[in-house]
Amino acid sequence: MQDFYRLFRAPGVAHCGGGAGPQPQNLFDALVNWVEHGIAPEQILAQNASGGTRPLCPYPRTAIYNGTGSTDDAANFHCGGDLEKPEVVCADVLARYKREVNGPLDFQGAGVNRHLCLGTASDHHEGFHDDRDHDD
Fold first, then answer.
1. CA angle in degrees (0–180, nearest 5) for 1-42-3
2. CA distance 59 to 9
3. Do both 37 and 69 map to the same domain?
4. What pLDDT sits at residue 134?
5. How far apart (Å, rounded) are the C-alpha atoms in residues 78 and 97?
6. What does the angle CA 50 – CA 62 – CA 81 come to, to the nearest 5 degrees?
7. Does 135 map to a domain?
8. Structural domain containing residue 41
9. How far is Cα 73 from Cα 90, in angstroms, rounded to an integer?
10. Does the N-terminal peptide bond of residue 22 adopt cis geometry, omega within 30 degrees of 0?
11. 134 in a domain, yes or no?
12. Reported pTM
């Protein structure tokens, strides 16, 4: 799918700008370059209010800090990782009443396969279960 579609997540931008997260830059130029010249964007530069930059990576990759240099410089990051790994996706499933500690996880409407999550190594942690998950 990466040949014709790319999703660049911009955390903290607050739906089209105004949030505390770094704002994506030159989106239209990236799109034109892809459509008219066949050069798909490998990352999108984002800039925060103080002028620092970070890369936005095409999903499911994410920006990873290289470990040296300023965290306000996009050159000190690379795109990598896999946000679709079960240990990443399953960690974001919340308890039904969001403030519970070790409560049963609520997969309804989460878009997450509960059988995949309940079968991961992390399901041995206390509270990592779904009382409603019964095979009849």
1. 20
2. 7
3. yes
4. 40
5. 36
6. 145
7. no
8. 23-80
9. 30
10. no
11. no
12. 0.68
